[in-house]
């Protein structure tokens, strides 16, 4: 009996060792993969990022600061902040509402709504901008009516905001939907049974559970809003000092061979990306610690 037990233990140990060996890659494979990953990171991410700051500061700090305080640059920065300041809250309301409806209720057209949320991921931003031109341009569907009432959408701030909202509205909803689906709706149902109304249920039960995912979606939305180029380029008209955002201003300066100025403005966008990455990492750390 003891011999059979010992034999069984050896067989079990051998099976576990064989299982670990089957899933453990050789050391050279691990370091090769790490080396390839670091090489790609250095070539396609780190070096271009360093090049942006090197070119921006090539002519010194005076030239760098002069490019940032130039009136057209300040106008581009201001317009970028305005578009983001409008698009992010709108997408916040839409994202939370859509995620709540999709995850907490069953209704006809639910899958169609999910498809519409994913639409900006499958449509080119340039095509999205062209659609707004066809709708609100001078020769568009609503163009004559807008002209009669002296309202400007295309080649004006409203068109830039609309384009920015379109390309950014999936981020918050798509961040919250899987999170809220995984959490289920038992806690909300329990709160309702205990007498909480809809607002109390959302504020005291749902929001604390989704706060990190919501903040993560807001950060991504803000980063995309400030860095959007394609859709905004179509609807802006490239009017210097009026309808140019930061990415468009960078393009104009570069096409005019003002390389130091263009890289100076581009460095602000690069700093935005780095700040976004740091905040994203912090949010992931906080979410992992709370889970």
Write structural notes for this entry.
With 291 residues, this protein is mainly α. The protein has helices spanning 2-23, 27-56, 61-69, 71-104, 110-117, 119-122, 125-136, 143-148, 157-168, 170-183, 186-193, 198-227, 230-236, 246-255, 259-290. α4 packs across α14 (246-255). The longest helix has 34 residues, at 71-104. Mean pLDDT is 85; it is low at 17-22.
List the helices and strands and how they pair.
Blueprint: H1 2-23, H2 27-56, H3 61-69, H4 71-104, H5 110-117, H6 119-122, H7 125-136, H8 143-148, H9 157-168, H10 170-183, H11 186-193, H12 198-227, H13 230-236, H14 246-255, H15 259-290
Helix pairs in contact: 2-15, 3-15, 4-9, 4-10, 4-12, 4-14, 7-9, 7-13, 9-12, 9-13, 10-12, 11-12, 12-15, 14-15
């Amino acid at each position: 009996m003891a011999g059979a037990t010992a034999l069984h233990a050896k067989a079990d140990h051998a099976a576990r060792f064989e299982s670990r060996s089957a899933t453990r890659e050789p050391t050279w494979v691990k370091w090769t993969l790490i080396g390839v990953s670091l090489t790609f990171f250095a070539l396609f991410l780190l070096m271009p990022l360093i090049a942006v700051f090197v070119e921006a500061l090539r002519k010194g700090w005076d030239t760098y600061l002069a490019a940032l305080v130039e009136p057209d640059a300040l106008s581009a920065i201001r317009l970028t902040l305005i578009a983001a300041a409008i698009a992010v809250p709108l997408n916040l309301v839409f994202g939370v509402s859509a995620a709540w409806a999709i995850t907490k209720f069953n209704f006809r057209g639910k899958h169609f709504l999910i498809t519409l949320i994913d639409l900006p991921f499958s449509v080119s931003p340039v095509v999205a901008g062209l659609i707004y031109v066809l709708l609100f341009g001078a020769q568009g569907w609503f163009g004559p009516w807008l002209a009669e009432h002296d309202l400007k959408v295309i080649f004006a701030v409203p068109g830039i905001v609309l384009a920015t909202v379109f390309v950014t509205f999936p981020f918050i909803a798509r961040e919250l939907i899987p999170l809220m689906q995984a959490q289920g709706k038992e806690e909300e149902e329990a709160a309702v049974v205990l007498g909480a109304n809809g607002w109390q249920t959302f504020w005291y039960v749902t929001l604390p559970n989704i706060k990190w995912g919501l903040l993560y979606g807001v950060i991504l939305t803000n980063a995309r809003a400030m860095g959007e180029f394609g859709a905004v380029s179509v609807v802006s008209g490239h009017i210097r000092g009026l309808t140019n955002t930061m990415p468009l201003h960078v393009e104009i300066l570069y096409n005019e061979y003002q390389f130091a100025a263009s890289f100076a403005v581009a460095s602000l966008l690069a700093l935005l990306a780095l700040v976004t990455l740091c905040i994203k990492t912090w949010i992931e750390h906080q979410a992992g610690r709370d889970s």
